[in-house]
Structures are given as C-alpha cells and as structure tokens.
Amino acid sequence: MISIEHLTVEFSARPLFTDISYVINRRDRIALTGKNGAGKSTMLKIIAGLQTPTSGAVNKPKDLTIGYLPQVMKPADTTTLKQETEKAFTTLNNIEEEIERLTRELGERTDWESTGYQELIDRLSELNEQLALTNAGSQEAEVEKTLLGLGFERKDFERPTSEFSGGWRMRIELAKLLLQRPDVLLLDEPTNHLDIESIRWLEKFLANNPVTVVLISHDRAFMDNVTTRTIEISCGTIHDYNVNYSKYVVLHAERIAQQRRAWENQQKLIHDTEAFIERFRYQATKAIQVQSRIKQLEKIVPIEIDEVDNSRLRLSFPPAPRSGDYPVICHYVAKSYGDHLIFEHVELTIRRGEKVAFVGKNGEGKSTLVKCIMGEIPYKGELKVGHGVKIGYFAQNQAQLLDEHLTVFDTIDRVAVGDIRTKIRDILGAFMFGGEAIEKPVGVLSGGERARLAMIKLLLEPVNLLILDEPTNHLDLASKDVLKEAIRKFDGTVIVVSHDRDFLDGLVEKVYEFGHRRVREYIGGIYDFLRKKDLDSLQELERKTPRVEAQPEPAPAAPTPAPPAPAKPELSFEEQKARKARLSKLQKQVEALEDEIAQSEATLRQLETSLSTPEGSQDTSLFEQHAALRKKIEQLNDSWLEASEALEAAK
After folding, report:
1. What would you report as the CA-atom Rg of the chain, rounded to the nearest whole angstrom?
2. Residue 109 has what pLDDT?
3. How far is the C-alpha of 518 from the C-alpha of 270, rounded, in Å?
4. CA atoms of 74 and 136, how far apart (whole Å)
5. Alpha-carbon distance 86 to 90, whole Å?
C-alpha cells in the first residue's frame, strides 16, 4: 500500500537514515521503536508528506488518505469542542456538495453520447461509493461516541476549545482523526495525554476498525494490545519483525547476541591481520602477503552493534534525609475554581517510605492536589506536610519549561552549586549526554532527551519526597526501565501521577483513584486496583439492576375491567415463623450498625477536637487513630447499606 524506497535523511551532513526500504501493507499494525533521537518522529513526518527526505521516495496510491497525530501541536481557539470536532467531516461535506453540483450539471446537459458526459457519470458513481463508505447521516452520533470514549462529558460539548488544557486539546485532534476514518493512521505518542480508561477505549477502537496503524509509543502494554508488527530504527537502518513488542524484545536480544559474536570474530580477524602486518612489514620475502593483508584490512566493513548503550545511563536518587513519619496528611481537603468543584472531603495519609500512585481521568484533580501539596494554590480543609520534608517535584510539562536557547551544559551549569559544578560533565555523561551532545541547544533535543535533562535538574538536591507528574512522557522504554528501578531503590517517599500501567506495575503499593469529586484509596498495586475496579463496577450494576421477581406482571389490555387476580396462597405457619425470624434478625443487624456508626462518629469528633490543640497536632498516634476510625466508619456505612437493602428485599 505504501512503499518506502531507498530512504536517506541527513541533518547537518550527519545521516539519520541510510538507504532504508520497506512496505506498509493494508491493515498492518506497526510499532516504530528505537532510542530517543533515532528518527521515529521524522519517519512518520516523511510518510505523512510533511518532510522531504534527502533522497529516496515514499510511493502511495493517489486516493490513499492519511491521518497524522504529532506529539505537539497548536490548535486554533475559535470554536466550541463540538464545532471543532465536526471539522473532521469537511471532506464528507465537500463530497456531498460535489455530488449536488454534478447532479445539477447532468440534468442540464443533453450531450448524452459524449465522452465528457460519461466522465461525469463515472465521477458521480465514484463519489456516491465514497459517501456510502463514510456512514453519512450518523455524524452527530459518531461525534458523541468518540468524544465520550476519549473522556469528554456532554456538558463539555459547547465549551470553547480555549478552555481546555494542552492534553485535552490533543484529545480533540485525536477525535477528529478517528472520525475522519483515514486509510492510514500515523500516531506519535497518542497515549501521553490519555488516562487509563481512555487508553483502553482507544485500544478497543483500533482493534475493531480495519485501519492501517503506524504508531510510536513508550507504553509497552498499549503497543502489545494494538500492534502485530515492530520496526526498529537503529544505527541509521531498520530491522523489521512480524511480531508485537514483547515478542520483538526476545528476538531483538537474540539478534544482538549474534551481532556481538560477529563483532568479536571481526575484532579477532582485525587484530590477527594487524599483528601479521606489523611482524612482517620489513621482510622483503613477505612484501606481497603484507600488501595483500593491508588491502584486506581496508576492505573490512566494521560491524556495528545496534544495542543501545544503557551502561552509561545510570540513574540513582541521592540518599533521602530523614523526614517525619507522615510526609503528607490531608483532612477534608477541597478545591474548586469558582463554581466548578474539583474535589472535596479528601482524606489521605501517606507514610514515610511509601510509594503511591494518583490515577483517574484527566481533569479529576490529580495534578491539582499535587499543586496543593506543593503550596502553589489555595485550598480548603487541612493539609499538613510533615516535619523535615524536602520535596522534589517533576511537573508534567517540566521538559517544556527548559530554555530552548541554552545548551545542555549551560542548562545544568545554571542550577548546579558548590562542588557539584566540577562534576557536571560526569553527570551529563551518566545520562547519555556525552562528547559533543553537551553543546547541543535544548531546542534541537528530542522529547525524551529533554525529559532526561529535566530529570538531571531534579537530582541535584537531596530530597525525601518525590512527586512525579507523568514522568514517563517522552521517555523511551529503556530510560523508563532505568527510572523505574531508581524509584524502586529510592529510600524516601514517592507520589507518582501516571497512566502508564506497565511503569506502575511492581512500583507502587497503594493507589488513590480520583473521580466524581472524591479520592478513594486502594491498597495494592496497579493491577490489583484495576481488578477491584472491574469488580466494583459489577457490584454497582447489580445494585442498580431491578429484581425481575419484584416487578408485577402488566395487566392485559381489555375493553372490560380485568377479573381480579387469584389470591396469593397464604404462607404456612412454619414459613411465617421463619420469615418473621429473618426480618427480626435483619432489623437488629441494621439497628446495631446504626448504633456502632453513631458511637464511632462521636469518637471521631473527640479525636478531631484533640487534634485541633497544639499538643494533639504533634501526636502522630492520634493521626493514626483518626485515619483508622474514618476507614472503619466507611466500612460500617457499606455494611449498613447492604443490610438495609436485604431488609427491604425481605419485606
């Protein structure tokens, strides 16, 4: 379908690709992979026709439609969300207008036997076929379904696009692309601005549509669920694997092992040849053999090992100074912007050394609570940052905040103080900014390189509370693994805001879910949380589903009053006795739970009175009792609800 032939791209006389050729077939699901700076985004731009290669060509059918989602874009802010999304149907509207014009022209012409008349008929048939394939007439339903799937709410439809953050604007562009139904989708980091639920929706959408997909992503789980072919860009060339990412990793390791063995054999041959030349260089009887070996040496093409040199990418956070036992305590914290409530009644206690995740849909308040903890914005309620807590904060847009005019070296030199300034080159080298790379302007760095540079700035001062807001955006998979291991070994407290399931897996021990203006705590890892969420959804569905046996049968329509229904047979004495005993037991259970809830709430009020005193605010045991009691009350309320429902059903 798309043929890439002998593609070569050079930047400042440095080759990025050299003589690359491959074919993208219809319905291919391709993951482009490779280290940051390897040229993945450049490859997508060339396929999309937005960049011209130094040499080579991209051949594709004339009528092929391509949709391209870049990492960064600047959308116009002149319309509402719904109006902007409906621009996806511009092509469809143009087709309808052309059909109307051609139909009028055919009605006015009388040269029915001419070639021009036949060409008009052929064009009209072609346009009608295109229109039939686009589900014309269901645009409004398609817009709603797509926007809701990507996390928007109906009340957002009439909001101006200027009110949405950068992440939500990217979703608008993604919605327009999906609605256009192009033959080929080129997606550059589509999951960077999506929450877990929206990523799952996108996975299902791509799986159920016969579109060709070429994507770049650092979300391993997303790639495994969407793609079936992996093209690795490395050392200026490509390696094509007809498998998904996880299987590619295994095959890649085997190929690297083979390359290493070939490289070792070549090094031995070079060493032996050079030794022969050196030994017999000045012997006239060996002159012919020496000249032959010299020519042989000149013809050797060095074998390159495609393995990314992660041995130099070393990341470890400085030892964490000791903090208080509870770095963060929130009690009835609430935040709103005007009349728009973000969250309320937030209760959470994070202990020293815990690693927790903040998850939930975008816009539910994850980054907002982080800003409250940082003291950047006002809030209501009590939020206490513990004694001796030193916060290291990696903001979601940290990489974009770097000065693009400074070099890599100057960026770090301006924030380094004391003896650390003498070690800047060593630090940069540990993050794979060695040699000439330290003199690169920040403006030419890839997204992953900027993220690594921003991470260096975070490491220059010892902290004991790390708050990382989407730290893996733009990091390649190797860098993500290194960062994950460094966080795992960090002996301080960590709060991670992320939608990357693979990154959070095995890293966090507690999950806080943000949604519906509340924050709910789940003990366990990210996949424990996802399993509980599915279970909670089923339980909620069961609670809301009306019981069939409780619904009366509708009376049949008749011109005359229906005869009275036969009387229900009376219960036997034993059945009445058992029913009465069950009702009595359930009634006592409900009353007992109500008494226990009342007593617990009274105790909670006493604790809150004690905590409001200067002495009580320093007593960590009171905070523990308070958190435990709140959790107990929540469990009691759940039990009371179940018992009350059972009592009503029994009646």
Report:
1. 33
2. 80
3. 67
4. 29
5. 8
